[in-house]
Amino acid sequence: MSESTQLDNAVDLVLDYAKQRNVEADVIAESGEKFSLKADGGELSEYQVSGSQVIGIRVVKGDSVSISYSESFEEQSLKQMVDQAVVNATFTKDDKHQKIRAEGASITTDVSETYQDDTATAEEKVALALQLEQGIVDKPLAKGAPYNNFAETISQSLLANTLGIRCYHKSRNLMCYTSALIDHDGKQSMHYTGSVARTFAGLNATKVIDESYQVAHDLLDGGPVATVSIQSSLTLTRWMNFSAHLVLAFRVFLHNAEQTHGAKRSALLLQVLC
Q1: What is the SS3 string spanning 65-96?
Q2: Whole-angstrom distance, CA of residue 143 vs CA of residue 221
Q3: What residues have CB less than 8 Å from 111, skipping those under 6 apart?
Q4: Where residue 242 falls among pLDDT bands split at 50, 70, 90?
Q5: Which DSSP string do the residues of 7-54 spell out, in sequence order?
């Protein structure tokens, strides 16, 4: 069963059960996959594939509002989530301003834009992850790249309510970053840069490496900014004169505003300022 089908089934079950409990509700369900790589000492220190899913509900019963969520899409867990939200509503403070109004709409993001096809292989991604570290290490003054990462995330979201609205979003995001640590002549500096794209080809590892190193190199000779003592010569008389000129300037401004926006607004502002 595809992830989108799992989201649809879970949301439909929750909405149907909420109607059985005679409450209005909106539901949001999300699922995601993540592939992450990190390098250390010329080898992969992390090769992680993970997934997650969560569903949440907001129940509106009269003027009472409550929420609940579940990380399990099993029928029993979903019904328990709804039951808990209904029970919670009996203890919450009334909030007459929260209502479920949106109805009947169906919105889907342009998946061809947010979820672009990508043919990059796992080997290519591993090579990029290793490059993020090695590219820094090869620089003349670099001590290492203690923080580096490549990650690819695929996420799906489905929002629906008991009035019939249904909104779907799917996206793929790839990112990489690296840091440059420089230790030279008793001075240390570090900087990191990242790149984000919708496809693997859109990532710019070379720019990330070069910019991280260059900025760290430029920061190497940085130091504290010297401070100076400034003595104030603003006496009470000078302050009163300054205030008078300021009020006069505002009166001129408000006179011009009166001609454009009307006397009532400018007169009110004049009372506040003066």
Answers
A1: EEEEEECCCCHHHHHHHHHHHHHHHCCCCCCC
A2: 16
A3: 170
A4: low
A5: HHHHHHHHHHHHHHTT-EEEEEEEEEEEEEEEEETTEEEEEEEEEEEE
For residues 78 and 57, is the Cβ–Cβ distance under 8 A? no
Record the pTM.
0.72
**Kind and range of the H or E run holding 228:** none
Query: Lowest-confidence range among 77-81, 103-107, 171-175, 246-250?
Result: 246-250
Find tokens 């909420």 and name the residue: 18
Q: Which of residues 150 and 94 earns the better pLDDT score? A: 150
Distance (Å, whole) CA 190 – CA 183: 9
Side chain identity at residue 210, one-letter code: D
Indicate the SS3 state at residue 238.
helix
Kindly report the average pLDDT of the chain as a whole number. 88
